[in-house]
């Protein structure tokens, strides 16, 4: 299947899962899973930075439209996309990334994928939750929300790698 078609389908499916199912899951107000970030995480290494930022903006905006959150997801997604090249550079494998591969458990191993995901998911969630609260008055509560939501999101992301993306 064409890569553009695959990514478009992934975009639509992840936004649908997020707004139809996961936005309705809130356990004690502390766990909010955001699986739509998988779209940004799985874009090919060769994706130009400007395309990455534009796609991330539209991804976040799509979630914002259905969630009525006024650009919070769009800004958090763009922040995550901005950090992605730096995280990839920091986690770079010895010989560099193979041409035509995409980030994933099966190409670069579980440890690499987990470090990659945890860095970007924590950045996304921190940005999102601090924008949502827009103050440091309840710092401990916000940090607990970030940690619990990131843990639940990471669990979903890693599980999806093993269920959907087989070798």
Summary of the model, kept short:
The chain has helices at residues 3-20, 38-41, 49-67, 72-90, 105-108, 110-133, 139-164. The protein has 167 residues and is mainly α. The chain has one domain.
Describe this structure as you would to a colleague.
- The protein is mainly alpha-helical and 167 residues long.
- It has one domain.
- The chain contains seven helices and no strands.
- It has helices at 3-20, 38-41, 49-67, 72-90, 105-108, 110-133, 139-164.
- The radius of gyration is 15 Å and the shape is globular.
- The chain starts with a helix and ends with a helix.
- 26% of the residues are buried.
- It is found in: Cell membrane.
- It comes from Paralabilibaculum antarcticum.
- The chain crosses the membrane at residues 12-45, 105-131, 143-165.
- It is a multi-pass membrane protein.
- Belongs to the MreD family.
Q: How is the topology of this model organized?
A:
Blueprint: H1 3-20, H2 38-41, H3 49-67, H4 72-90, H5 105-108, H6 110-133, H7 139-164
Helix pairs in contact: 1-3, 3-4, 4-6, 6-7
InterPro entries: Cell_shape_determining_MreD
Organism: Paralabilibaculum antarcticum
Transmembrane segments: 12-45, 105-131, 143-165
